[in-house]
Amino acid sequence: MAAKESLKQKAYYAIKDKIIRCEYAPGVMLNEEALREELHVSRTPIRDALSRLEQEGLISILPKKGIVVSSLSMNDINLIFEVRLLYEPYALLKYGQKIKDEVIYKFFHTFSSSAHTFSEEEYYALDDAFHVAIVEAIQNPYLLKTYDWIHNQNLRFRVMTGQFVDLRLERTNQEHLRIVTACLKHDWELAAKEMEAHLLASKNATFDLVLDNKNSEMQHGK
Amino acid sequence: MAAKESLKQKAYYAIKDKIIRCEYAPGVMLNEEALREELHVSRTPIRDALSRLEQEGLISILPKKGIVVSSLSMNDINLIFEVRLLYEPYALLKYGQKIKDEVIYKFFHTFSSSAHTFSEEEYYALDDAFHVAIVEAIQNPYLLKTYDWIHNQNLRFRVMTGQFVDLRLERTNQEHLRIVTACLKHDWELAAKEMEAHLLASKNATFDLVLDNKNSEMQHGK
DNA sequence: AGTCAGCGTGTTGTATACAACAAAAACATT
DNA sequence: AATGTTTTTGTTGTATACAACACGCTGACT
Which residues of B touch A150 (CB under 8 A)? Predict the structure, then answer.
């Protein structure tokens, strides 16, 4: 499958994946030599990959010192959700009509009937697919690229904070239903409004989770 | 000044500058060897720079074939102005309050009294400074990075289409004045609306210029 | 003349050796 | 013991040689 993929692409995806899954945790130092040994390639493709990852904000390269995986602060939550709050309602309002009805109906069906049969992990994939499907109705590559970045950062937050609790998952599903229902009626103004409400709730939930996380860390020492 | 700048940064800015000024015109092919000779550095910093420029959408790297400077199509105008129409009114609406009054007053003074003393080139720099000052009130680095990209693309369009005609410059200045006046009153909703109108007018003007350009190209053969 | 195989040239991809610098460690001096 | 200096070590920056591939060209064969 990846036989024709260049080494620099392989290195890029491999390192990116480990950063997103927090195998390389926020704030830790990396160095080219260690990555070289781990991926069994020379420094050149590693450096290509690192250059790209720096552009995307996942790492910082400190000249002659090392590479640090970008940390995640409270403020990053604000930054991520600012972009989402700007893009996602806009996508519905201006491009909702471009989303195929069958796609909308598929999500409606999934959210309304079988939500409880999903594991948390599976529901995450579903949540991602839902939001991405909406945003991709904007076909502007500049906007989509930015969205991809914050999407990655959002994934890191998920891994760091652990999964949602069940209660929030229920609420999330209900909010999704309200958005999808508005979409089915082709009432894009309402859909955008519901999306905004959903994102604000999600933002607060993320804030709480990060705070809880900080607290329990302190209780467990360190 | 640039003594401590790394070669890869020097290469990046040098190539980027030539692309923006259309010394490397849209659609032309480059190769690492020629760039290496032109900049008197080895391929490594060149490749670093190219990787970054590819991220920013200014070039495409075709493996084993060469490097092509991204072309500018009609559709790119839509993409650029979609981002501007999304960001700039948003900046005024949500962050207008963060712009210092003295900055606003400085622009008011400039636009209202001394516009006619500027050359077209100078007025461009002023126009840029004005829009950038507004957008930078959004402090979100993700949004600002996207804006920087489309800003560069916009500059390329300017160079390609030649400067505005005087008539449009007059109109532009009047539109700027309307925006700044609303800002002085701290009426950010009005300011955002005026900005939207200004951008739509500017978009149409750019379209017309590109069309004229295409036509005159055809008249002059090819 | 047409077609296809093989070769040659030009391009980026990859590996690696060396340079430049930063930071820590070791050491001498007081 | 404290301090300033030198050395050592570790890191990325840079240069360069070689590999891999794409594409056009040549030539033989039909």
Answer: 142
Residue B115 to residues B5, B42, B72, B108, B172: CA-CA distances in angstroms? 37, 46, 30, 10, 10
pTM for the whole thing?
A: 0.92
The β-bridge relationship of strands B29-30 and B59-62 is: unpaired
Burial profile B61-82: b = 16 or more Cβ within 10 angstroms, e = fewer: beeeeebebbebeeebbebbbb
Chain B contact for A112 (CB, 8 A cutoff): no
A143 to B146: CB separation less than 8 angstroms, yes or no: yes
Regarding the domain delimited by A74-219, which CATH topology (the fold level of the hierarchy) does it fall under? Four Helix Bundle (Hemerythrin (Met), subunit A) (1.20.120)
Q: What is the spatial distance between Cα B59 and Cα B11, in angstroms, rounded to a whole number?
A: 14
Residues ≥6 apart with Cβ < 8 Å to A20 = A58, A152, A155, A156, A159
Positions of CATH 1.20.120.530 in chain B: 74-219
CATH code 3.40.720.10 for B2-69? no
For residue A167 the two structure tokens come to: 């209660």
Give the gap in angstroms from C-alpha A79 to the nearest C-alpha of chain B.
Answer: 6
Residues of B in contact with A140 (CB under 8 A): 79, 82-83
For chain A, residues classed under CATH 1.10.10.10 are 2-69
pLDDT digits over A57-100, tens only? 999 999 999 999 999 999 999 999 999 999 999 999 999 999 99
pLDDT in tens, A164-206: 555 678 889 999 999 999 999 999 999 999 999 999 999 998 8
Instruction: Tell whether A150 is within 8 A of chain B (Cβ).
Output: yes
Distance from CA of B222 to the nearest CA of A (A): 31
Query: Residues of A with CB below 8 A from B56's CB?
Result: 55
Tell me: pLDDT of A222 over 80. Answer: no
